[in-house]
TrEMBL record:
<keyword id="KW-0472">Membrane</keyword>
<keyword id="KW-0812">Transmembrane</keyword>
<keyword id="KW-0479">Metal-binding</keyword>
<feature type="transmembrane region" description="Helical">
    <location>
        <begin position="179"/>
        <end position="197"/>
    </location>
</feature>
<keyword id="KW-0408">Iron</keyword>
<feature type="domain" description="FAD-binding FR-type">
    <location>
        <begin position="234"/>
        <end position="334"/>
    </location>
</feature>
<keyword id="KW-0274">FAD</keyword>
<keyword id="KW-0411">Iron-sulfur</keyword>
<dbReference type="InterPro" id="IPR050415">
    <property type="entry name" value="MRET"/>
</dbReference>
<keyword id="KW-0001">2Fe-2S</keyword>
<feature type="transmembrane region" description="Helical">
    <location>
        <begin position="25"/>
        <end position="46"/>
    </location>
</feature>
<protein>
    <submittedName>
        <fullName>Ferric reductase-like transmembrane domain-containing protein</fullName>
    </submittedName>
</protein>
<feature type="transmembrane region" description="Helical">
    <location>
        <begin position="209"/>
        <end position="229"/>
    </location>
</feature>
<dbReference type="Pfam" id="PF01794">
    <property type="entry name" value="Ferric_reduct"/>
</dbReference>
<keyword id="KW-1133">Transmembrane helix</keyword>
<feature type="transmembrane region" description="Helical">
    <location>
        <begin position="145"/>
        <end position="167"/>
    </location>
</feature>
<keyword id="KW-0560">Oxidoreductase</keyword>
Amino acid sequence: MTTLAPRATLPPVAARPAAAAQAEAVRVGAGLTLAAALVLVTSWWLRDGGLGAVVDLGSALTALGQLSGLAGSVLLLAQVLLMARLPVLERAFGQDRLAGLHRLVGFTSFSLVMVHVVTVTWGYAAGSLTATPGMLWTLTWDYPGMLLAAGGTACLVMVVVTSIRAARRRLRYESWHLLHLYAYLGVGLALPHQLWTGQQLTTSPARTVFWWTAWALAAAAVVGWRVLLPLARNLRHRLRVTSVVAEAPGVWSVYLTGRRLDLLRAEPGQFLLWRFLGGPGRSRAHPYSLSAAPDGRSLRITVAAAGDDSSRVAALRPGSRVLVEGPYGRLTPRAREARKVAFIGAGVGMAPLRALAEGMAFAPGEAVYVERYRATPLFAAEVDVLARERGLQVLRLPGARRTPDSWLPVLTRPVDDATALRGWVPDIAERDVYVCGPPGWSALVRSSLAAAGVPEQRLHIEEFGW
């Protein structure tokens, strides 16, 4: 018989907007802090001459190179913090929004760094294009820290090139993730150059304190949240596989247990980075969502075969050790603002939604569960129990998409997606909506929800993509 975690106590409605307001305050504060840092370094550049120091092409190029270098340095630090898995940012932004910011800040900082390299070299060559290659060689070999900076730039180039969508499609997730970690090396190699030869960074005690403090905090965040915290959690919890169960063709659930899992503080809907030590691929981390509400004694994830490593979970043996990082993500009850909710997912994207439907508090009729699948629904028996015992309303939509620009299967009436959704869930605009599925499919769902009147702040999306 299928058993479920104890029903959560329904929280007062007033508590939910408070959590949303706190998250919004963090988002606004983070944006203002970044803007203030950019204004500060720009003011230092102006104080050192700025545009007033421009007398010819060479000085103009050098001035532009100095400004782009300062702004690029600030954004590189912001990029490091976005990669550091800081809980305060994870809770406020959510993983998808952080990933979008990470991509935007990453490409912008890289562009500024490249502008800095080109314009400073060209400016030091007195604006002569023919003398620029020789000046680049001189700067690289004769100036302190510049050879390391060249290596760091090469690392950043590799990371940016492999982050372009066309390149990502040609790489396995495992390879892309490993290459992406070279961003830390790239930023670290740039540090000596900036502190040894960057005059705008060290010409006053205030500037020296600012830059050293900023770099030290960024490094501490990475070491603390990406290294020490996962190490401490794994030593404490000692996770092990208890069993692997086939859910559907090419889809398996992995059941795990460990010590004091209540202290992991995982929430329904969150994901962790998993390393299974029982076979090949143990060095690579994979993001898998919880597919059952954590009960403090065990965890469950559900994995679809999407590559060599994900397929290997079927061969895991009971007792296999597991290392984790996390939990991460804002696809949780914490993001909820409205009393009524809707869960909309496709394929293995139902995993976190299944956990939310179990672990979230709602009265009968207040939650609707919409599942898109081709042939076999996931967790059908468990969802039926939730419908029977908790009053979860279930809508199953089998079959292939009716058209490439629709997220729905063939319908009996030729209506658009938003109209069909409103027909099934007339009050969809009054609900918090949780969406999980492939990126392109999720984008179509987002458009339908917007057309149906769902406010952006009540739309919570996690995409199964990278």
